[in-house]
Amino acid sequence: MKIAIIGGGVSGLVAAHLLHRTGVHDVTLFERGDQLGGHAHTVEVEDERGASHAVDTGFIVHNDRNYPCFQRLLEQLGVATQPAPMSFGVADAVGDFEYNGASPNGLYAKRAHLVTPWFQRMVADLVRFNREARELLGTSAGEWDPSLREYLAARRYSDAFVERLIVPQASAVWSADPEQLWRFPARFLVEFFDNHGMLGLRDRPQWRTIDGGSRRYVEAIAARLGERRVRVATPVEAVSRHPDRVEVTPRGCAPERFDHVVIAAHADQALRLLSDPRERELELLGAFPYQRNDVVLHTDRGLLPRRRRAWASWNYHLTERATGRPTVTYHLNRLQALRGAGREYLVTLNRADDVRGEHVIERFAYDHPVYTRAGTAAQRRWEELDGVGRTSFCGAYWGWGFHEDGVRSALRACARFGGRL
Fold it and tell me: Could you give a GO molecular-function term held by this entry (predicted)?
């Protein structure tokens, strides 16, 4: 079959890889940007001594438990990985409140917290949450399906635990507006935390990062596809479905005929591409709103907590005023083992104005799905769209929103055509 794939992020790349490997399909991958990868984006930086380092600005880490399909893909491609120490911390702008939850030394980075009652209550509430939250896994959505905020209020968790621990953690994981968590499904979060070993201190997954940056797997897939099958800087303007064909129209070009199309774009982008969206497509794809997050790659240590023992792999920022977006800094020296770099390489979300100009390396913007009850319900109805009208849809939004979900959605979309790892 002649198959078009629209979108060169993880889902589109894997779909193209799977279908090409069958040896029976003629695959064309369309990517609107100048390069493949989507959130898998690596930048080459040079430290003070002239040494070069590959740093990631979007997708950074995966683990040995929750990314089995992605790990199988990397093994198949011959892409090496290395350990990535994972830790999470929260800090305000002046050092009055900060912690790194990876160790007692980091948790009590501000020593006064050892004898601060509300801080001790916050820690105790974490232990209670880890124990009580599993109760949601044993109930059906029909019994009680609260938002995260509703659940926390009903269980009378302390304000410190809510505002300075669990909401920052959820906001950082999903790059979500903290205020949006009033509507975030509590069950969705608890299932994710349970799957990732985050409801306890033992038996946690081992996190890893790709040697040489996430570009390595992107380059490996592109090399196997060959230049003829990959068309970057080619935005698609319309997809029209007919009984005997699908017509894909790149910008400024005539329509091109295919037997099937796999749309591996964000849900809202997929809807805009369809010239004749069906009612069910409008309903299900329309259930996934997106939020844009501004990203800065930089070397400004001022975006890290004041106390070095509070530095974490993920550093969430408490702000005086609500920003409507998550504010977090990723410490790449820790996550990507940048030994001897001579400076701190950081990626910060939604605090661009606070990064001193001389420390800015590059700026980006990434869109992330916003999860709601309607969205999680739509995920369970994926099969209602699969293959209808010679069209398949894949993307990380069909799962938790991460790289493994992108791979899994590509596997589902390609299964009918013999695509498998």
Answer: oxidoreductase activity
